[in-house]
């Protein structure tokens, strides 16, 4: 049974890790929608007009590794507050969600705006300190010059901007299943999400 699975949550909560694992488990396609905003944010940093960048974005041109740093993350959350930028990225995300064979999309507004009809909605959180520690370990392992304090500040600034913006703010859909991963291993978090999806598939 092909489903749309919407996974939302704040920065570094583990939603991308869970989404990738769900897509692999159920053989669904996966879209990390944050990469779309990061790609537009990266172009802003190079002096481009963000709306032009969003309108001309080609998903196949996105180089995920080059976009995973704090400067691009901050720029992404700034362009993400521009309603016209969000609008320019909407059709691509909705078309992806409807693809045959099932899809997992992760982001901030998937369950509320992009796919309010998704059969499964997950909202993944973890404490600020746990998220910052995980992101610090990830970025420093890649050789990036980061400090634990700087990473924590970066996450908190982004979460504030993302949850306070007027258009499509970060929030859980009313019918989302909430999962706090602060004290869960990746395997345990994924197992809980697989069980939640299985429950919907078995009921359908
Ligand atoms: N349950 C967990 N236990 C330990 N580490 C985890 C767990 N979940 C995710 N991680 C690690 O935390 C980091 C952030 O996870 P991930 O990239 O999945 O978060 P995200 O919510 O998709 O972040 P972003 O919104 O910034 O893209 C990664 O290094 C990942 O391996
Ligand atoms: N559906 C989404 C996804 C992302 N954003 C914005 O992009 C920033 C980067 O996202 P990551 O998931 O890669 O951390 C994020 O801080 C949001 O501002 C969004 O608005 N909607």
TrEMBL record:
One of its GO terms (molecular function) is ATP binding. Keywords: ATP-binding, Cytoplasm, Kinase, Nucleotide-binding, Transferase. It is found in: Cytoplasm. Its EC number is 2.7.4.25. It catalyses: dCMP + ATP = dCDP + ADP; CMP + ATP = CDP + ADP. It holds the Pfam family Cytidylate_kin. It is an enzyme of class 2 (transferase). The keyword Cytoplasm applies. ATP binds at residues 9-17. Its main location: cytoplasm. One of its GO terms (biological process) is pyrimidine nucleotide metabolic process. GO terms for cellular component: cytoplasm. It comes from the Bacteria. Residues 5-47, 59-197 form the Cytidylate kinase domain. HAMAP family: Cytidyl_kinase_type1 (MF_00238). Belongs to the cytidylate kinase family. Type 1 subfamily. This is Cytidylate kinase. The lineage of its organism: Bacteria, Pseudomonadati, Pseudomonadota, Alphaproteobacteria, Rhodobacterales.
């Amino acid at each position: 049974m092909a489903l749309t699975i919407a996974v939302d949550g704040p920065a570094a909560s583990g939603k991308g890790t869970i989404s990738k694992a769900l897509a692999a488990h159920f053989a669904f396609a996966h879209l990390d929608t944050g990469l779309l905003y990061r790609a537009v944010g990266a172009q802003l940093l190079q002096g481009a007009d963000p709306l032009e960048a969003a309108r001309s974005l080609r998903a196949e041109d996105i180089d995920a590794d080059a976009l995973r740093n704090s400067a691009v993350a901050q720029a992404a959350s700034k362009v993400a507050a521009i309603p016209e930028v969000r609008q320019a990225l909407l059709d691509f995300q909705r078309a992806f969600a409807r693809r045959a064979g099932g899809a997992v999309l992760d982001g901030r507004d998937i369950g509320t705006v992009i796919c309010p009809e998704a059969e499964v909605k997950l909202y993944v959180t973890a404490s600020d300190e746990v998220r910052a520690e995980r992101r610090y370990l990830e970025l420093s392992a890649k050789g990036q010059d980061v400090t634990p304090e700087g990473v924590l500040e970066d996450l908190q600034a982004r979460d504030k901007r993302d949850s306070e913006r007027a258009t499509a703010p970060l929030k859980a859909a009313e019918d989302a299943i909430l999962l706090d991963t602060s004290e869960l291993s990746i395997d345990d978090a994924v197992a809980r999400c697989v069980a939640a999806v299985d429950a919907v598939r078995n009921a359908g």
